[in-house]
Structures are given as C-alpha cells and as structure tokens.
Predict the 3D structure of the following.
Amino acid sequence: MILRHGLAFAHSEEPPLSEASYRAWGVAFALIGVLAFSFRPILIKLSYAAHPVTPTTLLFLRMMLALPFFAAIAWWLRGQQPRLGARDWAGVVALGCIGYYAASFLDFIGLQYVGAGVGRLVLFLYPTLVLLLSFLFLAKPASRREVLALVLSYAGIALVLSNQVDTTTEGRLFVLGVLLVFASSLCYAVYLVAGSQMVKRVGSMRFTAFTMVVATVPAAVQFLVLEPVFALELPAAVWWYAAIMASFSTVLPVFLQAEALKRIGANRFALIGAVGPVSVALTSALGLDEPFTWRQAAGGLLVIAGILLVTLRSRS
C-alpha cells in the first residue's frame, strides 16, 4: 500500500521521480482541499447571523445544491471497473451516512454554540482518532515521526484554545457544542480510515460521488419531516452562503481530499489537515471578529511545524 511504500522510500537515498511526484500532488490536493473546506464554518456562522435558519434547513440547502454535481459525476462513472458488489454498496451507504451526513449535521448544530475557530480546533482532533482507529482496526501503528508531528500540531491547537475556555453564562451550551463537534470529528475519522481502504479499490472520484449522493437522502428526509415548507423562504444572503458552501466548500474539497487520501494515506492526510484550524482562526478573526492573539500565532507556528515534519522527507 502507498503508506508502506512511503516508509520504504524513507530509507533510500532518492525516491523514484514518478512516486515522488505522485505524493507531491497528493500533498497539494490535501492542502487546497483543507483550505477550501475550512471556509465552511465561516459560511455557517455568517448564515446564522444573517437569518435564524436552523441547522436542518442549512444542511438541506448545502446537500441539495451540491447534489447535481455529484449525481452527474456518479452517472458518468457508473460503468467504471471494478463493478461494485453488495458489500461495496453497503460500505458506500454506511460511509456516506457517517462521513458526510452525520458528521456535517453534528458540526452544524455544534456551531450554534461555539465560535468557528473553536469549532475547527475540536473538529481537527480527528488525526488522533484516525491514528487510534488505524492502530485498532488496520494494524497501522504510528511511527515516531508521526507521533512527534501530532504532539507539535496538537500542542499548537491546545495553545490556540487555551484562552477561549472560561466559565460564562453560556458555559453549558458551549460544552454541548464542543461535544457535538467532537462527535462530528469521530464520524469523520471513521470515514477517513474506512474510506482509505475503499478508495483504493473503488476509485476516489466514484467513491466520493456515490457517498455524497447517498448522504443527501437522510438530509432531505430529515428536512421534510422536521421543517415546514416555508422554512425555505430565506433572505438572498443565506442562499448565497449556501451556494458557496455547496460549491467551493463541498464539491471542490471533497474530490481533492479523496484523491489526496488515495495518494498519501489517511494518517498523513489527517496531519496535513491540521492546517485547517489555523486558516479558520485567521479568517474568523478578520470576518467574524473572533479573538486572535499571540497564542493563536504561536499555536499556528507549532501546527505548521508538525505538518512540515510529516510531509518533508530527509534526503539522507
């Protein structure tokens, strides 16, 4: 597998150009996808500020606006080999519901009670969960390099979070929001670990398109059951935020991240994803007036150091 090949190349003087290029593009796809995806909490918070829209309605808009793209790609790739068997379809349905529907809905609810920056910090705890799940179910223990990268990255995340946890009148709701976003993180970690195996067999674009189409079904059913029809009578600003969320922060990053997952593996992809909280901290400070202090700057440097440690190989 790709991850094992990477460990083998680490002991050689110079990796083959084709393999090095393959991995380099994987890192680039992961970074671009993470940055595009990290704008999602900003758009969610802006939507909540523009109008009292519910998480159920906002998730419905996001999924339905993104559906035509994924449905078109799923139809285009329908005859691609290998053909999916019953077990493959079961995996697609399960991972679509867990990784895109459940993870997104829990995140949407949690962001009602926590800021965008804090929410991303909690969500991006998933690399630790990815490594744990990989160890438990895939027999992939973390290397010393990965452990050190995790320590640096999450020391930085903890530093960024340290001055935002206090006792306030909304403390209970804040804790509820943190727990909901953490549950979202766990769902996403399950998707990354299980999806990394299916992507290699099914193909990244086909797997992503199928799982996103599947995830739209429970989101639509939930909206039809819980919300009245006039819930869609929303200001133009909310529709614009939802459209940007569906295209730039959903369609674009899920395909880039799926291809990155195929090229560099779940563990390294998760570590690169730690750049997300840093970008959200910066953009939320500029656009949402959330705090940004020296702790955020120092924590961001630690996160970047961890990312560089795991992505840059020594030539010797």
Remarks:
- Residues 18-311 form one domain.
- The two ends are 23 Å apart (CA to CA).
- The CA atoms of residues 26 and 264 lie 6 Å apart.
- The chain has one domain: 18-311.
